[in-house]
Structures are given as C-alpha cells and as structure tokens.
Design a protein that fits this description.
alpha+beta, six-stranded mixed β-sheet, globular, 18 helices, Creatine Amidinohydrolase, Chain A, domain 1, 28 strands
C-alpha cells in the first residue's frame, strides 16, 4: 500500500471521528474473540496504517497518529510506516508510554475516546473507562468507524466444522464440561460466558477453519449447569454437528444472536467470564443485567494440560514433522548454489513437504524464512514479489510448523549455507547453549517460566546481549500454535499471564540473536513438562523433548561452549540420528550421520 493511500484513509477516518464526536480513536489488532491471528475482515489497523505485523495498536487523533508494537516487529514497523506520518511507539522500551499513559497525558476533560467494543478486550476497556473517566473523558464503544470507509471489506470467514473422534481427543465433551462446571461451582457462579475460540474447540471436541492457521470456528458459548448454548454461523453447521449437539444438550444458536441473548436471558445467578479473553461490548451487556465474576477461563488450564491420548499422538506427529524438517535441511544444503533459490521458494518447499505428510491439516502459522539480515526481523515473511535471493553463503533462518490430526508443531533452525563470520559462530553457539541448558532444567513444582528463563538467556546475558521476546510459549493440540497460560519469559507486559508449569503442558524453547542489518539466529524445540523425582524437598519436574532436528554443526564452535554444553549437544545429536535415520533415504542418513557427529 502506498503512503498516499494511508494518508487518505487516515483523513477519511478523522472526518468520521468528527462526525461522531470522537477525539481519539483506538484500533487494536483483534477479532471479536481476541484471537492472536485475525482474518482479513478484521485487519482494520493494517488498512489504516500499512503495518502488517500480528501485534500492534493504532491510536488516531485529529492531529496525529501513533502505532504501538513489540520488539518482534520494530524493524518491520519502521519500514512499513515510512512516509505515513504515523509515529512508532516501541512497547516496553525505556521512556515509551503505554497506550493508556499516552491517552491520559494527551486527552483533556470533555474529550471522547472511541473504539469498536467488540475488538477491545474487557480488561483493557474497563481500564480505559475507569482511568479516563476520572479526567472527565467519555467512552464510545458501539461503533466501528471502518465500516463506512472500507467499502470492499472482506466478509466474515465461515467454514463447516469438523467433529473429532474420541480416539483423537482422549476425553468426551461430557467429561470436559463436567470439570468446567465443577470449577464454576467453586467460584459460586451459575453461568460461564466463553468467547475464546481455541477453548471452545477444545471443550466441544470440534475444529474449524475460520482463523488462518488456527483450526477454530467463530463462535461463542454460554454454559449453564444443565445446558450449553452454542452460537455459531449457520453455514458452519453440518447435520453431523446438529446430531452431536442434540446428543449432549448443546443448544445451537446463530452467531449474531449473542447480543440479543445476553440482553434477554433471565439470569438467576452470577456469570463467570475471563476479562482478558472476552470483548468489552459483550462484557458490558452481561454486566448491565447480572452479577459477574472475572476469573481465568477454567477451560484454558484444562486445555493446556494434555491427556495421555493427546501426548501419545503428539509424539507420533512430532516424529513425522522432525523427519520433514531434517529432509528439508538436507535438500537445502545440497541444492543451494545449484538451482535458483530465494526466500519465497524456500518457504514454498517446506510448506509443500508438510502438505504431503500423513494427517496434515494446515500450517500452524505462516512460515518464516529469512536470509542473512532479513532473519533479524523475528516475524519476517517473504512473498513472491518481495524476497531475497539465497546464495551459498551466510545463513537462512526457517521457523515453521504444521497442524496435523494428532498435534501442532513449531520448530526453528538456522541453517548454514556457506561462509559465516566468527561473530556469527559465537552468537550461534550461545543460542544453542541456552536452548540446551533450558532443555535440561530440573526444577521444583510451583515454578513458572519466569523462574527458568535465565537458563536460556544466560549465555547471551553473559555477553551483554538479549532478545526482545519471551523464550517460550505454550503450544496447542490441533489448536493454536501459541497457547496459554504457560510460557517462559522473565518480563511480563500488561495482560500477559504467569502460570505454574504443570505436567502435560507443552512449551517452546527458542532463544535467539537478532542483529539488525546483519543476521538473525533462532534455535527452537518443543518440550513437554513431566514429573521427575519426588523426595523430602518436594516434587521435582523436568522436560521431555519432542523436537529432534540437527543443530547446524558448521556454526557451533567449542571455544564458546562449556564442557557440559558440548556433552548435552552431542547427546542430543546422537538421539536425533537414532530417531530419524531409519526414516531417511540412504544418502540422507549418511548426511545426517555427519551432521550429528560429536563436537
């Protein structure tokens, strides 16, 4: 999009703001369910700013506009905002105000803040209302101003849903909803208003295709002690789903009926909701008519702790995926410099290899393939029109994953294609050391990812370096590749959750180095939390590794590693060869033997 187009759209937006008596207008990156990835219909912030990252919020006043995003996107945002007149606010950097701090400072008594309450989460909406209300600032949340400007806006996505068999899920809907109702009783609530899409899919044992790379269906749930009301688009409903819902006392309703339902329902008790995962508009409708309790969705933690059926299927899926990634690395190293290659064709290759795999459903996110300096942009995405040619030199970072009937994968490897500098070897070795040290963590039950983050970050902190993101996120089961409440990070921004690491949770382990204009390095595995020894000091916990893909030996230098690091990397590579070699061709297995020799 041209800078001229952005400026023209902002001009039209400011005109609509004036017509509606709005002085400042907030546009977050969200759908009606606070999903991480959003469909084209919801990309209002991108429409008005040209910034295409998955996280960011735009604030427009009659005089200026600012965009807030996190460290993953600083470089990308700088490039995409050039010439638009929009100021970049680098979140969590020293001296940079939050959106709320900015609005508190800039707005004056009698002014009005506007936003579409369906795409602002309840907690943030309440904070805005409370803090700005003290200054005499009004809130208007009922209108989406983009509707009158974005005339060719894509329609809401809608696809038929799929019911998963019990052998895939390990638990029935009845078993899951019984656990949810137990927690509702513990909180003295009679109703549970559920808007989080992956939680709904987990609870109902269904999957959809309404959010890119996330197998979810746009829908809402309202759970009572006897029934569940399920609001979903009519065209997503199959005859199989109708029969399924009838069997389990699930009352089907149209997706757009949720507002009327909340207004007209006869409440005889308290409504449970999760303020970080329910939109402000729906919260306001429920809160005006009933007592409410804000607490984490019971479904979120229940979903995060995988059952034995899910764990068994995940191990099988990860083996399949590990083989694909290893074959891809072999293909890349053998063909670079011999056939035409660029970041986009390299992306298409691994995507196509996954599509041919047994049980493949979709990618778990858009593949990132960044060559040389492009790898320094954490969420860089090459396109057919915008990509860098790959030569037999430097490194290619590839972060990719798949959705399979039996699991969700996420893996990153930085692949050496030719000559690299001593500095790169030092950085690469530190990243590998951090990843392997976290892999071998042994910790007491009760720890969260905050307690463990230093293990991965330590080798970089020793060099006065850091990466501007968490070390790891939870990962779903045939669901969202980014899942909570578990994570591994030392620093938490507003709204991010900290959770005890429970047996059966899956987390990623992905330290990295991102040197703007030079190179990017990330090595990522997925780990399962397991119970270790229990003694008088308590229950110890450790990790089981799911990802077995070689770490490029060409960039590992023993002088930057401890003896223990070397031992652990050698043991890991021995296990990579043992697990994968029989699934490869003779030539691939011979290559893998060389790639996994002891350091």
């Amino acid at each position: 999009m041209s800078n001229v187009a952005v400026k023209e759209r902002l001009k039209l937006l400011k005109e609509k703001m004036e017509e509606n008596g709005i002085d400042y207008y907030l546009i977050p990156t969200a759908d009606f369910h606070n999903s991480e990835y959003v469909d084209k219909h919801f990309k209002v912030r991108e429409f008005f700013s040209n910034f295409s990252g998955s996280n960011g919020s735009l604030v427009v006043s009659r005089k200026q506009a600012g965009l807030w995003t996190d460290g993953r996107y600083f470089i990308q945002a700088e490039n995409e905002l050039k010439g638009t007149g929009i100021t970049l606010f680098r979140m969590m950097e020293e001296g940079v105000p939050t959106i709320l701090e900015y609005l508190e400072k800039e707005m004056t008594e009698g002014e009005t803040l506007g936003f579409d309450g369906r795409v602002v989460d309840c907690n943030f909406g309440k904070k805005l209302s409370e803090k700005l209300g003290k200054k005499g600032i009004a809130i208007k949340y009922e209108k989406d101003l983009a509707e009158e400007i974005w005339l060719d806006r894509p329609i809401l996505p809608c696809h038929e849903v799929q019911i998963l068999p019990e052998k895939i899920c390990g638990q029935t809907y009845e078993e899951k909803v019984a656990k949810v109702r137990e927690q509702m009783k513990e909180k003295n609530t009679a109703y549970f208003l559920l808007s989080k899409l992956d939680d709904l899919m987990w609870l109902l044992n269904i999957r959809g295709r309404d959010v890119v790379c996330n197998p979810v269906a746009l829908s809402y749930g309202f759970i009572t002690m006897e029934n569940m009301y399920y609001f979903i688009q009519k065209n997503a409903v199959t005859e199989e789903l109708r029969e399924y819902c009838s069997q389990y006392n699930i009352i089907l309703k149209d997706y757009h009926e949720i507002t009327g339902f909340l207004k007209d329902f006869s409440y005889e008790g308290t409504v449970l909701y999760d303020g970080s995962n329910l939109n402000y508009a729906l919260y306001s409708m429920a809160a005006e008519r009933a007592e409410t309790v804000d607490a984490p969705n019971p479904t979120e933690k229940l979903k995060a702790v995988k059952n034995e059926t899910e764990l068994k299927n995940m191990r099988e899926v990860f083996l399949r995926d590990n083989v694909i990634v290893t074959k891809y690395i072999y293909w890349l190293k053998k063909n670079v410099g011999k056939i035409p290659l660029n970041e986009y064709t390299a992306t298409m290759k691994i995507d196509d290899m996954r599509r041919e795999a047994e049980g493949f459903l979709d990618l778990s996110f858009e593949t990132i393939a960044g060559y040389k300096e492009n790898a320094a942009m954490m969420h860089y995405e090459a396109t057919a029109e915008n990509n860098k040619t790959i030569e037999p030199e430097g490194m290619l970072l590839v972060d990719s994953g798949g959705q399979y009937l039996g699991g969700t994968t996420d893996v990153t490897r930085t692949i050496v294609l030719g000559e690299i500098s001593e500095e790169i070897k030092k950085h690469f070795s530190a990243v590998a050391a951090g990843m392997i040290r976290l892999t071998h963590a042994n910790f007491l039950y009760g720890c969260s990812g905050r307690n463990l983050d230093i293990l991965a970050r330590g080798p970089l902190w020793e060099m006065n370096m850091d990466y501007k993101c968490g070390t790891g996120h939870g990962i779903g089961y045939i669901l969202n590749v980014h899942e909570g409440p578990q994570n591994i990070r030392w620093k938490f921004s507003e709204g991010q959750k900290e959770a005890v690491l429970e047996e059966g949770m899956a987390v990623t382990n992905e330290p990295g180095v991102y040197m703007e204009g030079s190179h990017g390095i990330r090595t990522e595995n997925v780990l399962l939390v397991r119970k270790g020894e229990k003694n008088g000091d308590g229950q110890f916990m450790n990790f089981e590794t799911l990802t077995y893909v070689p770490i490029d030996r060409q960039a590992l230098d023993k002088k930057y590693l401890t003896e223990r690091d070397i031992q652990w990397i050698d043991e890991y590579h021995e296990e990579v060869y043992r697990r994968l070699s029989t699934h490869l061709t003779k030539e691939e297995a011979e290559w893998l033997r060389e790639e996994t020799l002891p350091l």
